[in-house]
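Researcher: I'd like a structural prediction for the single chain below. Treat it as a standalone chain; there are no partners to consider.
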Amino acid sequence: MAGSPRSPGRGAPRARVQRSAVAAGLVVALLAAWYLTTGPLELVNSLQFPSPDDAYEALRQLTSPGYAGATLARHIADSLALVGLGFVAATLTGIPLGILMGSSRLAEAYINPVFQLIRPIAPIAWIPLTILWFGLGTAAKVFVVWLAAFSPAAINAFTGVRNVDPVLIAAARVHGASARQVLSQVVIPASLPTIFTGLRVSLQACWMVLVAAELVGSFAGLGHIMIIATRDLNSGMIFVAMACVALLGVALSVALAWVERWAVPWRR
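Model: Treating it as a single chain, here is the predicted structure.
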């Protein structure tokens, strides 16, 4: 007697459980390897890579009384503010510019050559000029983060607009849509998946350039911890700061993915 046909979605929960089990096993294996190589086996010097005890002591010191002039909460708040301001500034400038270049050949002809000329310059190379322009305040640090996040946002917005199916645009025009309606109701919605891809890359770029940005006169921040800990040869502090950057980056990426699911429901 033939068995009943298996539902297509029945294997999905089992696959998720298996992936979670594999991920958990890898995490446990990495933690065990970390403990053994930096602890009992002493394969790695504590100056080169901290042991779990070193990391715990650094975390405890950061929590109270603090390190590098502030507690961990203050360092995290400063870095989040810096990343948030730079990311929002890049979003508000890069996406409109990309849409403009993608929807107008004339705008592309004038703007794109300048954009392509400036884009290859690494954000860290702008730091000397940034200090001359903005001094050592928050504006200088935000500008460096903005530089890192701006290009991915603009390029992906431009690509998204240019890759919109011409049939959709033609159909909208046939039904009497104006140029503004075509842009707002056809082109931009169809470009959203590519735009959000650019935003994810921009957000990652913000965290990658954080340490460089906090070279510009910072008194707190996760990058500031790394800078001071490097001078102090404190690998535990460096590790804790790096772990915080990783965890915060993952958390913000998850939040951005949630916004994408809300803004682009047809891709769920």
